[in-house]
Design a protein that fits this description.
Blueprint lengths: L1 E3 L1 H10 L8 E7 L1 H5 L5 H12 L11 E4 L2 H8 L7 E6 L5 H9 L7 E7 L4 H13 L4 E4 L9 H6 L9 E3 L3 H12 L2 E5 L7 E2 L11 E7 L7 H6 L2 E4 L11 H14 L11
Parallel strand pairs: 2-3, 5-6, 5-10, 6-7, 8-10, 8-11, 9-11
Antiparallel strand pairs: 1-4, 2-4
Helix pairs in contact: 1-3, 6-10
Amino acid sequence: FIAEGTETVRLLIQSASKSEDALTVKSIFVKPATLFDPPVQLLTDILNVSEKNSEDTTTSRPPFHVLIGDEQAISAVAGFPISRGALACGVVPRRDETWLTSLLSQRDQSQQLRLLALDGICDSCNMGSMIRCAAAFGIDAMILSSDCCDAWYRRSVRVSMGYIFCVPVIRVNDLAGILVHLREAVSCVSFAAVIDPDADLVLENMSRGEVPRSWCCVMGNEGNGISKSVVRACCYRLRIGMSDIVDSLSVPIATGILLHGLRERESQDFKIDAR
């Protein structure tokens, strides 16, 4: 994948050293001022990673190549204009159903579990915005259906402001089956975001403490919503209460509202059954 922009690259550098499941960074290409001068000064982050990567701090080096050049050189290498002072290249982590199963098996059942599932999201800008929302509201992992666009596409990474490095993204072949498994294995209650007037729940009518500690918010395609099989696999259909003159919101905005609303209404106890 390609990451652009000083703060996006900073997040990548910081995320690449935080865990055994850390991202692999191959190289970064920066302008001299971006590397050495305040307020950006990416050199500080690189030195921190270098120290963590070596027991001998006197001979420490970062686990990736660092290249320095002007804006014209960076743009020539990238093949497109780069005006944000920094470019990085990394390896897309391969996370699938097996990775998700491992995550769930290591989790203490008393811990909070917040998931965001995307069904057929096909716009990379929307994908990036939803990833940023997920990071903002403490989502533990994102689950993508097989027909979603690539979350690691350059535009998605850029729009996410680098927060794709902070939220694990898992692509699955059978999203409906995964939601059923989550309900049966870890009592995870799934909420399908819909605009149907007869939805089971309206966010604004839900009380504080009504949302269980383990939940998954499911968002659908920009034009067609959530597929029927995925809706059937969810525990509840949930909609946002809106003025009669507006029938729907853009999917990133709706995602932010629902994630905030569900987290705000969480409880220590299960008041909604994982039916």
